[in-house]
Design brief:
- Helices cover about 25% and strands about 30% of the residues.
- The chain is built from four helices and eight strands; from the N terminus they run αββααβββββαβ.
- It has a single domain, classed as endopeptidase fold (from Nostoc punctiforme), CATH 3.90.1720.
- It is of the alpha+beta class.
- A six-stranded antiparallel beta sheet has the order 3-8-4-5-6-7. It has a two-stranded antiparallel sheet with strand order 1-2.
- The longest helix has 13 residues.
Length: about 130
């Protein structure tokens, strides 16, 4: 699966498959297929609209990683206040670091897309990057 393939994965709430993924599902797919990293747990019972449950799952998962700079392969946890409301992953396109994301739970209808790191960070109060 290539970056172009991931950009065609339709948004599906709680999706974890190449046939449909939410923000977490897209990060899982990208980590494995673009970077050869191990699968993250599915967290299939965590609804993207439940920000508290999403934050708890993200905090539990983050213990398995180290905080880092936005380097290719790192996943980004985006916060509004104390709640993690979205995650995405850093990729490199033509030597430039970009964020691969899909719809933020409860917002937007754009599906997978690439945005600049600064543009992504400007939408949130805080973004923390994690890598293995």
């Amino acid at each position: 699966m290539t970056l172009n393939d991931l950009l065609k994965v339709p948004y599906v709430a709680n999706g974890r498959l190449p046939t449909g993924a939410d923000c977490y599902g897209l990060v899982r797919l990208a980590r494995v297929h673009l970077f050869g990293k191990p699968w993250m747990p599915e967290h299939g019972a965590v609804e993207g609209g439940n920000k508290r449950a999403m934050t708890e799952a993200m905090l539990a998962e983050s213990r398995n990683y180290r905080e880092c700079q936005p380097v290719p392969g790192a996943w980004a946890a985006a916060f509004r206040g104390r709640l993690c409301t979205h995650i995405a992953i850093v990729v490199e396109v033509d030597g430039r670091r970009m964020i691969l994301e899909t719809d933020e739970p409860g917002k937007g209808k754009h599906g997978p897309r690439l945005v600049g790191v600064r543009q992504f960070e400007s939408r949130f109060l805080r973004v923390v990057y994690y890598d293995d």
